[in-house]
Amino acid sequence: MSMYLHDKNKRDLTNVSDVLDGLIARIAGTTGGLLLHLKTAWPELAGPSWSGRSQPVRIDTDTLIVEVENGSVASLLRFESTTLINDLEATLGALPFTKVRLRVGRRN
Which InterPro entries does the UniProt entry name for this protein (predicted)? Predict the structure, then answer.
């Protein structure tokens, strides 16, 4: 895979990292940027009950979709969903979601 993109107007090569920096900057204010932040900082943001047993996978309108290991973990964490939302709001400020939906991960 090439590290460069061809710019047809300039007839020059553009470093892919330059394009990615601009793309990341554009999505930083969107739910995609928030989801990326949640995924990378999940252990610190979610705390010990959630980290290692779950991972945020999507933001769907007003709901954060979190994938968990199995049904037992989903049952345990379901009771802590409100606490998770409150903790995330305290750390990150206003959130675009108000609910958490747990989904059991797919096995390979």
Answer: DciA-like
Nearest C-alpha neighbor of 87 from the set 48, 55, 52 = 48
Domain that holds residue 95: 31-104
Give the pLDDT of the chain (108 residues) as one tens digit per residue: 455 555 555 556 667 766 665 565 555 556 778 898 999 999 999 999 898 899 999 998 899 999 999 999 999 999 999 999 999 999 999 999 999 999 998 765
Give the chain's length.
Answer: 108
**Is residue 58 included in any domain, yes or no?**
yes
Count of domains observed in the chain: 1
Could you give the angle at the alpha carbon of 26 between the alpha carbons of 33 and 1, nearest 5°? 90
Alpha helices, DSSP H, located in 1-108: 16-27, 31-46, 71-78, 81-92
